[in-house]
Amino acid sequence: MDLEVLKQLDPLIVVAAAAATVLVVLIGALLARGRSAAEVAALNGRLAQLAESQAAQQAQLAERLQAQERAVTQALDQRLGDLSRRVGDSLNDSANRSQRSLAKLRERLAVIDQAQQNITELSSQVVGLQDVLSNKQARGAFGEIQLKDIVESILPPSAFTFQATIGENRRADYLLKLPHPPGPIAIDAKFPLESYRALREAKDEAAHTQAARRFTADVRKHVQDIAAKYIVPGETAESALMFLPSEAVYAELHANFGTVVTESYRARVWIVSPTTLMATLNTVRAVLKDVRMREQAGVIQAAVLALLADVGRLDERVGKLQRHFSQATEDLRQIHISTEKISKRAERIDELQLGEEPAAEAEVIAGPRKVHG
């Protein structure tokens, strides 16, 4: 706006300056030539007119300047108002965004606090689990509980026995009731964890080698004990199951201790983890189902034979019913024939009543004596 005002004022200033310059030049020229008084007076009159015109132009210029100043002031006030409003809106938007960001931040912090609490609880549970697994008796109870959950979730109660007695007062954690062959299969839930921990915590090669030897010896002894205690000829199957509640121990055995696994196969002691035990128990359930179906095969066969006899009797009775229907149809046909004869005789009787000749009556009366049926 200021540049536009200056652009409008520049021509007026230039005109005023040019007029003043012209007057000065004229006055100097006249004085230099020594003009007459009349010319000087005329020149003074012109100068007076020019002064009045210049004064009027200056007044107009002053009014224009005031108007332009007011316009500039209004425009500046308007622009300042718009700028203040925009700044206020921007500050309000920033404040709202800041509040929303703080609200989201508080929500996330609450989620993080909850996760931290869950992690703390999980850590305490892990510590408790470590305490359980560090105690042999507690570890055995933990294995039995896990084994119980798996067995009872897959097999019906009639298919197993908990803490079954085998041989000379030997108790197996679970005994699967399979028919002969193969016979009942015992499951043991103990496992050697101390040597496995030493194997995982070994710092150098020597400690690792020593822990591996100890782990091999512990697993081999445990396999031999199961084979001696829970494989009883004539009472149980020729094999038993060693349950490892830890998938890590099972993976370690099959990955790095293949010799021990092979020896367990030779001893007919099958090492199973929770995953492989589920697959084994599903196979056992299928075998038990097949056995029950075989046991019921005689009953099913007798029921089928009885069903065939019933079908034969039903066919015989249907034949009799069909013969009855045929006889009834023939009787109906004979009845229909008799009704037709009766109708014809009734018509003849009706004609006899309407006739005029006595001979016709005698013929009608004699007629029925000749009809048979």
How would you briefly describe this protein structure?
The chain is α/β, with parallel strands linked by helices and 373 residues long.
Strand order of the largest sheet: 1-2-3-4-5
What is the number of E strands? 5
Strand/helix succession? HHHEEEHHEHHEHHH
- Largest β sheet strand count, sense and barrel closure: 5 strands, mixed
The number of helical segments is: 10
From the spread of the alpha carbons, the general shape counts as flat
Oligomer: single chain
Instruction: Give the domain tally.
Output: 3
Rounded to the nearest angstrom, the distance between the terminal CA atoms is 139 Å
**Radius of gyration, Cα only, in angstroms?**
63 Å
Mean pLDDT: 77
Percentage of residues in helical conformation: over 70%
Low-confidence stretches: 1-10, 368-373
β content, as a range?
5-15%
- Please state the structural category: alpha/beta
Fold blueprint:
Elements: H1 2-33, H2 37-134, H3 136-154, E1 160-166, E2 170-176, E3 185-188, H4 194-200, H5 205-230, E4 240-243, H6 247-256, H7 258-266, E5 269-272, H8 274-295, H9 297-354, H10 358-370
